[in-house]
Design brief:
Pfam families: DUF58. The chain is of the alpha/beta class. Helix content is 41%, strand content 23%. It has a seven-stranded mixed β-sheet with strand order 7-6-3-8-9-12-13, sandwiched between helices. It has a two-stranded antiparallel ribbon with strand order 1-2. It has a two-stranded antiparallel ribbon with strand order 4-5.
């Protein structure tokens, strides 16, 4: 009986989500195709003079030698692109405060990139990281395929029980490795996670960026950045089950927590930037669709060769 009631609720939520994304995001996608979704293609285009900020890998050394001035060749874009969604649905995504939980942002981010891809007639596939396992949703075209992916994410998010015992700290490396395996053709990959995972994922992300255009979508809740002064607070790590009680009226404790959180987020941003991926941060306490619209507009208008960007709203 519970499953019977869940189906209409899930369909209604996804229909409302699609309507919101269509109303707010479509204008940032439709129109000028060039520079929006695809990264550089495989075929070299016309040469032009180098300008500061161009990717040095695009330098045409033969043309540079002939003209005695540095020139680059912008690749011709492919108008069909494989879009993969790597979505972290581990227990830590169930954390959230005033504005909702990170697992909701994971669904919203997957929906935004997925609908943008289907509007441009691209194929969409997904790798869903659940309880330490990677679930692969095959690459297919059409909105029904995307709706099936989003429905699966929503159903996973609706689970009330966590693994018992807890599955432990999330390891993002297998999902990133598998993404490189199931996506041999150059494409676009959105990695959606809070990146509060086991260390060592930097190398796998770097390898993925060597073949694909990658956007790392970082999910953040304000309580992960700063503790409120509310007295004794019991916190639990949803992935390990570890509990501890802290005195949030201790100003020194709050300062140490904030500094540790700042350093942690800086490390995540550095790893993403150093790997060659783009960085989009979505927060539970901010307008997520507005953040996505601005990020998509930036992608659409950016010329090839422009330096990788970081966008945090």
């Amino acid at each position: 009986m519970q499953a019977h009631h869940e189906e209409p609720t899930t369909r209604r939520v996804l229909a409302q989500l699609e309507l919101l994304i269509s109303q707010r995001l479509a204008g940032a996608v439709h129109g000028d195709y060039q520079g929006f979704f695809p990264g550089p293609g495989n075929e070299a285009g016309e040469g032009r003079p180098y300008v500061p900020g161009d990717d040095v890998r695009l330098i045409d050394w033969n043309l540079t030698a002939r003209t005695m001035h540095t020139h680059v060749r912008d690749p011709i874009q492919d108008h069909e692109l494989d879009v993969w969604l790597v979505v972290d649905l581990s227990a830590s995504q169930s954390f959230g405060t005033r504005g909702g939980e990170k697992r909701q942002l994971a669904l919203f981010g997957a929906a935004a990139f997925g609908f943008a891809a289907t509007w441009l007639a691209n194929r969409v596939g997904a790798l869903l990281l659940v309880d330490g396992e990677t679930e692969v949703r095959p690459l297919r075209s059409g909105k029904p395929n995307l709706q099936a992916i989003l429905h699966r994410i929503a159903r996973i998010n609706m689970r009330t029980a966590r693994p018992d015992p807890p599955a432990g700290r999330t390891d993002l490396r297998p999902a990133l490795t598998q993404a490189g395996t199931v996506a041999p053709r150059r494409g676009f990959v959105a990695v959606i996670s809070d990146f509060l995972v086991e260390p060592g994922w930097a190398n796998e992300l770097h390898r993925l960026c060597q073949r694909h255009t990658v956007v790392a979508v970082e999910l953040v809740d304000p309580l992960e950045l700063r503790l409120p002064a509310v007295g004794a607070l019991t916190v639990e790590d949803p992935e390990t089950g570890t509990r501890m009680t802290v005195d949030t009226l201790d100003g020194g404790l709050r300062d140490r927590y904030e500094e540790a959180a700042r350093q942690q987020r800086e490390r995540i941003a550095y790893i993403i930037r150093n790997a060659g991926a783009e960085h989009l941060q979505l927060r539970t306490d901010q307008d997520w669709i507005g953040q996505l619209v601005r990020f998509f507009q930036l992608r659409r208008h950016r010329q090839f060769g422009y330096r990788r960007s970081s966008w945090a709203g």
